Predict the structure.
Amino acid sequence: MNKNSFQSLYNILVEKGLLVETQNVTVKESVGLFLYIIAHNNKFRDIGGTYLRSNDTISRHFNKVLKAILKLSPDYIKLPETTQASKWGYFKDCVGAIDGTHIDVTVPVIDQGKYRNRKQAITTNVLGVCDANMKFIYVLPGWEGSSSDSRVLRNALEREDRFVVHLG
């Protein structure tokens, strides 16, 4: 975030009265530590030294900024208006959902290369399929973490106990 964007966010939060300075922490510092945490996926304890603040102080100010930003959301996030009554309106002909996930595993050192995923973790790649009622109808576990999702899906569609899409 550049200085102008930071200043704009700061001005909005202060002018709307969503954040006020405390005796020891300024609004700019609160917003700065909030943005630093979310931008770098840091834990409170990891930035305590940078800001010379306790975990409790960081937590309190992080949550104050978070709540303030959430209060701004109706002014800046416009959800599309829908005329359909169903919560599944955009997915009315959808028969289900399919996704993969990586689960940490422990394997012998000799096999770890095959199970090392793109984030360098040792995982197994699992494919799951749910129907429109959010019930699992197919699960394919056991693929090495280095396997691509498309390769796992292709295998699920070609194997003897394959996943079959039932339409209608």
Q: What stands out?
A: Strands lie at 96-104, 123-131, 136-144. The chain is about 40% helix and 15% strand. The chain has a mean pLDDT of 86.
